[in-house]
Amino acid sequence: MPPSQRKVALVTGSATGVGAATCRLLAGKGWNVVVNYSKSRNEAEETAAECRKLGAEAIVCQADVAQDADCRRMVDETVKKWGRIDAMVSSAGYTKFVHHADLESMTSDEFLKTLSINLLGPFQVSRAAVPHLKASGNAAIVFVSSVAGLNGGGSSIAYSASKAALNNMTKSLARVLGPEIRVNAVCPAFIEGRWLVEGMGQERYEAYKKNLVATVTLRHAMTPDDVAQQIYWFIDGASVVTGQVLVTDAGFTLGPVPAHSAAGSENRAERQKERAS
Predict the structure, then answer these.
(1) What residues have CB less than 8 Å from 236, skipping those under 6 apart?
(2) Alpha helix locations (H) across 137-193?
């Protein structure tokens, strides 16, 4: 299919991390993509270039999802370019690491900023895109949430609360936007990458990851590509699934389990290599 006639996905927060991985995966599957960023323009341009190398058309759009006018402008630019939107992936997110017990350090401004990006933002982008998604005929909205919204953990109380509310909103929107639009969410746990390195610090990040891989059920630290695969399934494979919140955490929420045998760990490593190849 000519690039100009392909399906179109708008992916927020897609300069880096899960959003960027989702854009690359969609591009490789024959989709055109909108690469959205708030501040990371250089990384967004790099992601768009990678998508173009995969045969897709890609545009870069600066927008702060906490601002409704930005959301509507981003949707308008997408439709102006291709005349359609077939999927919207909300990956833009924000957090500030604040220990849950340190209540005084979680200021009202910080709490509201977290909610405005992690909860209001997904709503505003969805609202702006709905008329065009409905015209697609088999459209999907996928929110990138977190297991923090299920277990009350995560980088801060505000972050956890924002993701819990996002999980609930997934179900609310699924009810009102069907049958034309399916709405689902993915809930990863620890994801390798810059987001956690910057929040935790390199030393703490490496120690946490090492312990996680040694104790989590699948002996695997989730990567942006892992999460992107689940997002793509909701977009293109889950034609009768809506209002669902999918935990994608390699078994993290099951709690730590005894270490496997050396042979078992080696087999797991080999399967990871095969999946990556």
Answers:
(1) 29, 140
(2) 148-151, 157-177
- Interhelix angle 17-28/41-53, nearest 10 degrees: 20
Show pLDDT as tens, one digit a residue, over the chain (277 residues): 666 679 999 999 999 999 999 999 999 999 999 999 999 999 999 999 999 999 999 999 999 999 999 999 999 999 999 999 999 999 999 999 899 999 999 999 999 999 999 999 999 999 999 999 999 988 999 999 998 889 988 889 999 999 999 999 999 999 999 999 999 999 998 777 666 667 666 677 666 667 667 777 788 778 899 999 999 999 999 999 999 999 987 777 788 876 654 345 445 555 555 655 5
Closest CA to 134 of 172, 92, 173, 169: 173
Alpha-carbon span 190 to 204, nearest angstrom = 13
HSE-CB for 145 with a 13 A CA cutoff: 33
Secondary structure string (H, E, C) spanning 192-225: CCHHHHHHHCHHHHHHHHHHHHHHCCCCCCECHH
Assigned token pair, 165: 């509310």
Residue 240 makes CB contacts below 8 A (sequence gap 6+) with: none
- Which residues are designated catalytic? 159
Helical packing angle, 121-136 and 157-177, nearest 10° = 20
Domain ranges of the chain: 3-192+223-253
- Homologous superfamily in CATH for domain 3-192+223-253: NAD(P)-binding Rossmann-like Domain (3.40.50.720)
Specify which residues 90 forms β-bridges with: 12, 143
Both tokens of residue 11?
Answer: 């992916």
